[in-house]
Design goal:
Blueprint (H helix, E strand, L loop, with lengths): L1 H42 L3 H5 L4 H6 L3 H16 L3 E3 L5 E2 L6 E2 L4 E13 L2 E13 L7 E4 L2 H10 L1 H6 L6 E4 L2 E4 L2
Antiparallel strand pairs: 1-4, 2-4, 3-4, 4-5, 5-6, 5-7, 7-8
């Protein structure tokens, strides 16, 4: 009888951890698929499409989709005034971080690589976006890895926020690394 109970306990743990591992892998696959669509929207400067992937709270705080589009259309000029030309068609992402979950949210940090020209030299801005799902990974929303984005995450889940070590944003140009923010 003892051996049988011991066997059941072992079996339970095997299924529990295997199931959790499978769920985390499934979230990663769903995230990568959604992320490809988000990146495509950005590369093509299709800000209506992109807005459907941005956290709804962000869109609401900006005053709606039209204001989000206006803001995105001003970003290249804001950078140009600093001597930086964005090359959005070359934008790319790195490998998403391991999934972190709480009872409501699934979160991943995704490194971003934005090629730029700075004073006629090629460079890259290395940053990140925060991916959030509230429905078991079926739909992902993104927010820029800025102080504001981090604060949105903190409001969503202080528990997850405190677990994350956010990457340092940098501008890499002419073999120099300049810390941003």
């Amino acid at each position: 009888m003892f051996k049988f109970k011991f066997f059941l306990i072992i079996l339970f743990f095997i299924f529990f951890f295997t199931g959790r591992s499978y769920a985390l892998e499934k979230y990663q696959v769903l995230l990568k698929n959604d992320l490809l669509n988000y990146v495509s929207c950005y590369k093509n400067q299709n800000y209506i499409c992109m807005s459907s992937y941005v956290l709804p709270e962000v869109i609401k705080n900006l005053g709606g989709v039209q204001n989000f589009i206006k803001l995105m259309e001003t970003v290249p000029d804001m950078f140009r005034k600093s001597g930086i030309e964005l090359l959005p068609n070359l934008f790319n992402t790195g490998t998403p971080s391991p999934i972190i979950t709480d009872t409501k949210n699934i979160i991943s940090i995704i490194p971003t690589i934005t090629p730029v020209r700075f004073n006629n030299a090629d460079g890259v801005i290395k940053g990140f976006i925060i991916a959030v799902s509230r429905n078991k990974g079926r739909k992902w929303f993104y927010v820029e890895g800025s102080n504001e984005g981090e604060q949105y995450l903190k409001k969503l889940s202080r528990e997850i926020y405190e677990l994350i070590k956010f990457p340092q944003k940098t501008l890499n140009v002419n073999n120099k690394i300049i810390k941003l923010e």
